Amino acid sequence: MNNLDEILEKLSKERLVFHSEADFQHALAWQIHKIHPNYNIRLEKPQELKNNQIHLDLFVGVGSQKIAIELKYKTLSLFTDIPKKYNPTKNENCFIENELFQLKNQLARNHARYDFIKDIHRLEYLVSKKIITKGFAIFLTNDKNYWENSGRDSMDKNFRIHDKQILEGKLDWNLKDNPSPKLGKRSDSISLQKKYKLNWRDYSDISKICRINNNFKYLVVEIN
Q: Residues 74, 59: contact at Cβ < 8 Å?
């Protein structure tokens, strides 16, 4: 399956926005099925990984090929009208094609970036062990802080995933100003086997409907 951008483009014509990551997961699975009805598609397929069990967001069987797809959907709240005072912590709503969308402000960007790169790492491992033939990590968002390069020397600067960023080698937190952060399960460094240049693409533009946070972009990283 090499036409994931084409699949996402067709999906964007039918679904401009999703209520949640699970909604995105189901819609993408259905779109793949419509284009490729002979593919075997499973959601949340359990898989053993280094003595731990994980669940692959999407698993696609294509003849002898086994393809895993991991998804991230991170949002900022949508606003129908520009408020007098924009409050980024307040969840507003927006009607899109007569359907109400109330997206949450998911602001833990450092965690989201880490988790996305962790997905790439896991998929690399599954490919190396020949458990899967190929993997895709997908990130969809209306938060420009992911695709734009702020240039700030932040704690998560090594996990930045902005457009044209290159991910490779061992990645760790930048702790020079914060030597004891509360990272929990995300405290470990991540080592990537290959080099990845990140290219963000447009998904949907709902600026005629919603006045703020109205541009959705996506990132696809292919692992093989």
A: no
| Per-domain residue ranges of the chain | 4-223
DSSP 8-state code for residue 32: H
- In a structure prediction context, what are the per-residue pLDDT tens digits for the chain, which is 224 residues long? 778 999 999 999 999 999 999 999 999 999 999 999 999 999 999 988 878 889 999 999 998 999 999 999 999 998 776 666 656 566 677 888 888 898 989 988 999 999 999 999 999 999 999 999 999 999 999 999 999 998 777 889 999 999 999 999 999 998 876 666 778 889 899 999 999 999 999 999 999 888 889 999 999 999 99
User: What is the torsional sign of CA 119, 113, 186, 179?
Assistant: positive
Q: pTM surpassing 0.90?
A: yes
Asked whether 198 and 165 are in contact (CB, 8 A), the reply is: yes
